[in-house]
Amino acid sequence: MKVKEIMNPDIYKVDKNENLYKAFKVMHDKGIRRVFVEKDGKIIGVVSYRDLVNVFVSRGLFELIETKVGDVATKNVLKIYEDDDIKDAAKIMVHADVSALLVVDNEENPVGVVSQTDILRVFIKG
After folding, report:
1. What is the pLDDT of residue 28?
2. What is the pTM of this model?
3. What's the count of helices (H) and strands (E) in the chain, helices before strands?
4. Burial of residue 44, with CB atoms counted within 10 A of its CB: 0-12 exposed, 13-18 middle, 19 or more buried
């Protein structure tokens, strides 16, 4: 089965200059565990719920107020092509210890997100 058959076409993004609350609010409101960070319309990073928890625990209140999403984003965004097999997506997620991948087309344009939950749904449906 191909990634494009199970991916979510919605890619939730926040600007790199937004505060951490904005990223948390988008995650909370949309029921997701990560947002992609963009600069000038291009995805340059990703921030997960786990990343935010680590930042909230390790920084002081005044430092948090001044911290921008781009400051804590993981810059190496893991991607998979929409025509790749979901088994390849699962292998990448397990080896990299991430819960989702950005899905791109052959021209590297973002077209969606595939998560561990998306893959598990396939196996549950059997």
Report:
1. 95
2. 0.89
3. 6, 6
4. middle
